[in-house]
Design brief:
The chain has about 150 residues and is mainly alpha-helical. The protein has helices at about 5-15, 30-60, 65-80, 100-125, 130-145, and strands at about 1-5, 25-30.
Length: about 150
């Protein structure tokens, strides 16, 4: 449960809420829980859109969508999915001395490569991937590190 409100009030309901919620997190004053839900669901439904683009690309390539679906769900269970990179306490750009800098640079390098490959395949198959193009353009900034290649795809 994503909660906004007074800490003392939350403590009064934490025990009963914990009977049906695996996690109860207070985000701040009244309204902050709703704001956290909106941010969480932004990731959720944007990921749904990305999944739709991935399925369109796979289908155009003649791939088995059910098999791809099994692979995606398995790999997300292992890697943590999109939330796995939500490790920073700020969205400020990272510097070379930051503990997460090298990790995010590695993620950026892999992401840029794989997004470039997906966009090349999409172009060859005539599939429009607007979210993938946007992701390619903004991946490095979102990770808080400089981009390494042309991000204008």
């Amino acid at each position: 449960m994503l909660v906004g409100g007074d800490e003392a009030a939350l403590e009064l309901v934490r025990a009963p809420w914990s009977t049906f919620a695996d996690m109860v997190v207070r985000f701040g004053p009244v309204g902050a829980g709703t704001q956290a839900k909106v941010a969480r669901n932004l990731l959720h439904f944007t990921a749904f859109t990305a999944a739709s683009e991935a399925q369109s690309l796979a289908e155009a390539a003649g791939l088995d969508l059910a098999a791809l679906s099994r692979v995606v769900r398995h790999s997300d269970a292992v890697t943590g999915g999109p939330g796995a990179i939500m490790l920073r306490t700020s969205t400020e750009p990272l510097g070379p001395g930051d503990d997460w800098y090298e990790t995010m640079c590695h993620v950026r390098t892999l992401g840029e490569k794989d997004l470039d490959l997906a966009l090349e395949l999409a172009d060859a198959l005539g599939v429009d991937l607007p979210l993938a193009r946007l992701a390619r353009r903004h991946l490095a900034d979102g990770l808080g590190v400089p981009g390494t290649r042309d991000s204008g795809n």
